[in-house]
Design goal:
GO terms for molecular function: maltose binding. This protein has 420 residues and is of the alpha/beta class. The protein has 18 helices and 12 strands. The strands form 3 sheets. The protein has a 6-stranded mixed sheet. The chain has a 4-stranded mixed sheet with strand order 9-10-8-11, with helices on both faces. Helix 7 crosses helix 8, helix 7 packs across helix 17 and helix 17 runs antiparallel to helix 18.
Length: 420
C-alpha cells in the first residue's frame, strides 16, 4: 500500500531521528501537495511545538481516488496513517474505521463549530471527524470582460451560455484564439457529481435521491439541465473540459483564458496573487439558476479524522484539534481563502479584509445543498459513481441526455433496492 503514498520529503525536512522520550511519530494524509495544500505546513508547526515527529503523505487530487485509497488502508486495518483528511460525504461511510473523537480530543476542542457540520460528522452518536473548512460552489467571472462587452453577471444558465458564447467569439475574433466561455469540473469523478447536482437542482430537478430515499432523477427538469450542459462541449467549453478537475479548470481561468468558471472558494486567493494574469480582473457570484429554479450550490468541505488503527489516538486527536482550532482556521482563510467552519471567523476583521467575499458567503454556505450521502449511507460511492459516469457519457455525446437520465434512474433504483 505504501506505493500509493508519495513521500513529502521535498516539502518538509525530516526531524531528527532521536526524539524526546514522550514523542510520538504521527503520519497524516494531507491533500495533493499542490499550492493550496496548507496541511503540511500546519502539521509541521504542530510537531515542532509539541516535540513530535510528523510524517506527511500526499494523496490523489481526485476525491474518488482518495476514497479508494482510504478504503484499502482502513479495510486492511493498516497503521500506516494516523490522521486522515476526509470529504464531507465520507463520515458515514468510514465511521467504523474511525475513533470517537469525543473520547480523545482535548477539552473544549469540539466547541464553536457550525452545528450542521458537527451533525454531519456525528454517526450513531460518535464524533468521527472535526470540520476543517467548508465549501460551496461559486461562479467566477471576468468583470473586465463583462465591462468591455457591456454584459451583466448571468443569473441563469441560459444567460451564462449566451454571454459566454458572445464574449468568447468576440475575443477570438480579436486574436485571442485560446479564449473559452466557461470551464468547470467535467471529468468522471466526484467533482462532476457536484456540478451535475447544481445544474439539476437549480432547474428544479431534485437531488438524485430525496430525503426519504426515493430516486427522483427521472424528470424533465433533469433532462433539460443535462441537455444544456452537454451543449456547452465544443461550444463555450473546450472538449478537454471532460477531463478537468478543480485545478485544471483553475489553470485555464487563472491564465486568462476563460470568461466564466465554476469552482470552490479557494480559487479566489490564488487568482488574486501578485503576478497572475487575472489579478484584480475577476469576481465571484452565486451560481446561475434554471429558468424557473433558483441558484443552488453543492455543499463541500473537508474534515479531520483519526484512524481506529492508530497507535497514538490521543496524540493524533491533538493534531486534529490543532488543525481545526480558530487560529489555524483564521490563517487558512486569510492565506488560502478557505471558508472557516467556525462562525466567529465570518465576522473577523482580518479575514474579511483579506477576502471580503467570505463574509458574503456565509448564507451560501449555510444554505448549500448536500449530496445524498446521509440517506444512501454506504451506498453513496455507488450512487455518485453512477451519476458522474452517466452524466459524463452525456457530455461526451455517447448517449443522449434522455438516455443518461433514464439509465441513471435504473442504476440508482437498483442500488436502492439492495438497501441504502
Amino acid at each position: 500500500m505504501r506505493h500509493y503514498l508519495r513521500s513529502s520529503a521535498v516539502l518538509l525536512a525530516l526531524l531528527p531521528a532521536t526524539l524526546p522520550a514522550m514523542a510520538a511519530e504521527i503520519t497524516i494524509a494531507c491533500g495533493d501537495g499542490g499550492a493550496a495544500d496548507f496541511c503540511p505546513v500546519l502539521a509541521q508547526r504542530w510537531a515542532e511545538a509539541n516535540g513530535h515527529h510528523v510524517n506527511i503523505v500526499t494523496t490523489p487530487a481526485s476525491a474518488t481516488e482518495k476514497l479508494s485509497l482510504y478504503q484499502q488502508l482502513l479495510g486492511s486495518q493498516s497503521q500506516d496513517v494516523d490522521v486522515l483528511m476526509v470529504d464531507i460525504v465520507w463520515p458515514g461511510l468510514l465511521a467504523d474505521h474511525l475513533v470517537d473523537l469525543n473520547k480523545h480530543l482535548p477539552e473544549g476542542a469540539a466547541d464553536g463549530f457550525i452545528p450542521s457540520l458537527m451533525d454531519n460528522n456525528t454517526v450513531q452518536g460518535k464524533l468521527v471527524a472535526l470540520p476543517w473548512f467548508t465549501d460551496a460552489g461559486l461562479l467566477y467571472y471576468r468583470h473586465d470582460l463583462l465591462d468591455k462587452y457591456d454584459a451583466d453577471v448571468p443569473e441563469t444558465w441560459q444567460a451564462l451560455t449566451d454571454t459566454a458564447r458572445h464574449i468568447q467569439q468576440s475575443e477570438r475574433d480579436a486574436g485571442n484564439a485560446r479564449m473559452h466561455g466557461f470551464v468547470f469540473q467535467g471529468r468522471a469523478y466526484e467533482g462532476l457529481t457536484t456540478n451535475a447536482l447544481e445544474w439539476i437542482a437549480s432547474y428544479g430537478g431534485g437531488t438524485f435521491v430525496n430525503a426519504d430515499g426515493q430516486v427522483t432523477i427521472n424528470n424533465p427538469h433533469a433532462i433539460e439541465a443535462i441537455a444544456l450542459a452537454a451543449s456547452w462541449i465544443g461550444d463555450i467549453s473546450p472538449e478537454g473540459v471532460r477531463n478537468y478537475m478543480e485545478e485544471e479548470a483553475r489553470g485555464v481561468f487563472q491564465a486568462g483564458n476563460a470568461v466564466f468558471m465554476r469552482n470552490w472558494p479557494y480559487v479566489w486567493s490564488l487568482g488574486q496573487a501578485d503576478g497572475t494574469p487575472i489579478q484584480g480582473k475577476f469576481g465571484v457570484a452565486p451560481l446561475p439558476s434554471g429558468p424557473e429554479g433558483q441558484s443552488v450550490a453543492t455543499l463541500g468541505g473537508w474534515n479531520w479524522a483519526v484512524s481506529r488503527y492508530s497507535e497514538h489516538p490521543d496524540i493524533a486527536a491533538d493534531l486534529v484539534a490543532y488543525l481545526t482550532a480558530e487560529e489555524q482556521q483564521k490563517a487558512h482563510a486569510i492565506e488560502f481563502g478557505r471558508n472557516p467552519t467556525r462562525p466567529v471567523l465570518y465576522e473577523n476583521a482580518e479575514v474579511l479584509e483579506a477576502h471580503p467575499f467570505i463574509g458574503e458567503l456565509y448564507e451560501t454556505v449555510m444554505n448549500g445543498v448536500p449530496r445524498p450521502a446521509s440517506v444512501t449511507g454506504e451506498s453513496y460511492p455507488r450512487v455518485s459513481n453512477a451519476v458522474f459516469n452517466r452524466v459524463h457519457d452525456a457530455l461526451s455525446g455517447d448517449i443522449s441526455p434522455e438516455q443518461a437520465i433514464q439509465q441513471l434512474d435504473s442504476e440508482l433504483s437498483r442500488i436502492g433496492r439492495r438497501g441504502w
